[in-house]
Queue: 3 jobs
Job 1
Amino acid sequence: MKISVPRLPVKLEEIESKVMMDELSLEDGSLTDVDLTSQIISALDISGGLFQNVILTGAQFERLNARDFVAKQSDFSASSMTNSSLNRAEFKNCRMTGVDFSRTTLHDVTFRGCKLDMANFRFADLARVQFIDCTLSETDFLSAGLRDVSMQACTLQKTVFEQAKCKQLDLRTSQLEEIIGWKSLKGAIIDDLQLVSAGPYLAHELGISVRS
């Protein structure tokens, strides 16, 4: 799977959060060591942007359109980015517990070393997305579209895939425990060890009784 990476300029202008909030845009700029907890941010457009050590806990993006965007060591816990669009984006070592990406388009996006437990991807459109060394416990992909998505060395526990539409979803090398919606994972790729551990759950969802 080939993913297009964010294209950031060599030099980024340091932007003050007030300027960004006033103009509702960030172009070829960076935001560092800023606390935007519980802020309501409407119609924010990012084109070539870097967030580093930015706290966005509980923030609400009424509409976010981000292209060529990188976030490092930032906190998006319980923030809302529903109905947004992310294209060529990377989240690295970010805390994202309970983040809401429902009905959001994510194309060419990488999550690396992120805590995404209880995140909401319901009805989201994910294409060419990779999760690397992430926690995805109780993460909800209900009715999401998952095309060319890989989850590498991730922890998936009670992760929800009910009614998801999968095409080339690669789960190999990840820990799979109590997955909800095995029947919706048609088209997914798992390894032989994962198949052994998944057997009881697959049998349960298919109504197969196993008796010795």
Job 2
Amino acid sequence: MSILLAEDKPTHRHFARQLLDEHFPAYGPVLEVAHGAAALQMVLTERPGRVVVYMDLPGMHGVEVVWQIWAHAPDMKLIFWAQFAYETCMRQTFRLIPPETVYGYLLKSASADQFVHTVRGVLIEEQCIIARDLHRAYVQATDRQTGLTDVEYEALVDIALGLTDQAIAHRRFLSRRGVTSRLHAL
């Protein structure tokens, strides 16, 4: 059994590696990669039992890496490691999580104790652990009183991109009337 650490920044990779080696030696060795495609390849060839993946990996975004990993190994225990609580990334990530999957979501600003707590909770105790700041941001974003539904959020993204009604219809597989209806409701 091994732990895959997918992180492109050497200082963060060293920080995580040191904590994993110190607190979880029985679950090692720790395999390291710095690119999204390398992380996916390592999972397919080495079959680590646990993965810590940075969400903004170069080459292949962490959301895509995780989606591919779970397509091949839906029971893989994963910890998402993010720099910031991006609403877009969180929405994409929470949409692709298979049922009954054990995972964690942690910010890089977390302390060493928080990192160890999350790793222990997810990888050993099989608990889903989401950092308080991330959970708060996600709840606020999806709260019907203060936030947006996924459909409303997508419409705002399309508007922000400057897409025409026709382009939105093509992108979202809708009729132009459907697009107009969504935009009017928003």
Job 3
Amino acid sequence: MSGATDDGELGSRQPPRRRPPEPPSRSAISARRLLSRLRDLMAGSGTAQERLDKIVSLIAAEMVAEVCSCYLMRAGEVLELFATVGLNPEAVHQTRLRIGEGIVGDIAAHARPLALSNAPSHPNFAYRPETGEDPYQSLCGVPLIRSGRVRGVLVIQNRQRRNYVDDEIETLETIAMVVAELVGSGELVNPQEITTASDAGLLPQRIKGTTLSGGLAMGHAVLHRPRLTLREMVAEDPEVELDRLRDAVASMHSAIDDLVLAGRASGSGEYVDILESYRMFAQDRGWLGRIREAIQQGLSADAAVERVQNEMRARLGQIADPYFRERQHDFDDLTNRLLNHLAGKGSGIQLGLPEDAILVARSLGPAELLDYGGGRLKGLILEEGSATSHVAIVARGLDIPLITRCNRALSLIEPLDPLIIDGANGQVFIRPSEDIVDSYNRSSQLSAERRRLYNEVRDLPAVTEDGEPLSILINASLLVEVPHLDSTGAEGIGLYRTEIPFMVRAEYPDVLQQTEFYRSILNQAGNRPVTFRTLDVGGDKTLPYFPEHEEENPAMGWRAIRIGLDRPAMLRMQLRAMIRATAGREFRVMFPLIAEVAELDAARHILNIELDRARAEQRTLPAEIKVGVMLEVPSLLFQLDQLLKSVDFVSLGTNDLLQYFYAADRNNPRIGQRYDVLSPGFLDALMTVFEHCRAARVPICVCGEMASRPIEAMALIALGARILSVTPQAVGSIKALVRSMNAGRVRTFLAPLVKSRDHSLRDKLHDFARDHHTAIDDVAVAV
């Protein structure tokens, strides 16, 4: 990625100097001539099939080829021969190839062009006798890509062995982009004829997804930035199109600058980091350069932007690395933004949003979500996205219900369709029936009643019916979440995950940047305690500037404190910043993924080095220093006595502890739900931890997801937990639970059960809570 571009480049912030036009390449001249004739052909009369037949004939003549064929994707992911010149015409609509079958299927499978001087010798060659292609030796094929999906393949063939040069391949790619647009828009082929498996299917009443930001929402669908129809595919004057592009890029950069300034004014540090990274993508010379090359081949500026994006999405979509896949969403965002600026529509956000808009998109960039703003956006549904994506981070900060991985959402949902988002169960109801709506309304009323109850108990102490006091803290990952301390009445932050500022930056933040960030958190928290967890990256949390390491099992690989100890400079910089930020205040720090006491000793040694450095520099030290560990690796259970002599507190990370305890990847859908945190074995292990901590007089805080769910929090309290750190949204429900339960009575009930052979104690605990009028209900839509 580049920063500001040189004067005269497309991404320049200064008015570009006019330069003499570059002489067009042979490829550009050929493409322009062919596009011009193609435009004249499309303006003529005839059926869709007749026009498609004329197109392949035109391409064959201009490309000096004996054969030109167009294969289109049909339902079932099958490529069907739709038009040809040179092959047997009776094979049209008869010859079919599966994805990956034959050379044509290989081109479609990999979304890349292929040029062969001796096609029959290719290992993927699949002979189809009905086509009569025996005499043809050489082949050049390119994918037809629209909206990031392969919609077909365009092929030329010659009898003699021919080495197709790059100019010829580029010309065919340019033509393929126009043909794909005409096919996809229905101008050449009835859309029903080319409905793919991913587009087809009956409309279900409900689709499942993954909840990244919880909550209930009902509203009407707004399809995110409906795809602009490209009216002008071919341009007469490339210089005019380059000027249009320069103006649009400058306008887009200015709008992004305004977003960054607004983020700084709001004090949302993470938003600024995300937008700064996003702005860097907008200035990428490679991206803009490829668009300019496409314009010089004869496409309009709009069509050139679309072509480059289609190619990028098809190719990056095959990369497994989560970082690159998430960054592709940022490029999708930029493409939409640039197309709207080319059309003179600015950001393109609809002004007439319904009052209860639920946004539906394949993917979404963080700037796009902030564009919608206001109070009208009630929920967000995405086909793609992960917990570490930028848009998920922003949605959680804005408390907008978000469900991702909703397969085929855009093909199933029409604009203004009534929708219900049920974050508790990770599901979306499309055009829900009356009974589902009634259930939602009851759930909403119940939710409103509970919010009223939570507000009533917000400022009351968290004490059980039998007089057991508890401390309820919150978990936080974003600066924007810190004000939840005031709104929820929480007593402090029991877990501040520090990795987000590292993940959204293009480079490792220096000590000054980190110090300012930690200080801003402490200032907002006031006198309430904040426990910082040192950097927990690796596994599924990648840093864009960190070298990639292939690992077969990244969750159990090089991550968290293991990286910190192997790269002590990183850990030292972070601890140095924390020491400076907490000058004169209490400094609470904990180390993640400690597997043995020796690792804790090594981490404390690095902390002591930085404390000595601060003393040598005569800096003000923290008023008090408390060091703890995240207990999330089972091996530490067997060193509890030694551990508790070396720490000031323990934080119980139930998320990782459970998956390591049962050797079950919690992100694996086949086994992620196989084992329950309320199983007897797991609860028995937790009870042992609480007993040891109580005997050693070491405070223990539960900060995993288990603490945020009432039925599970009830079990934790019965086992001996007295400090819970929960999501901000769960503070009210957990405090209501605490004030409605009798801890001693639940302990008496639970103690013998942890020695049972049951798979889970969930149902028994649920029935007990119901019988004793304990507030444990989660709000969800009942079906």
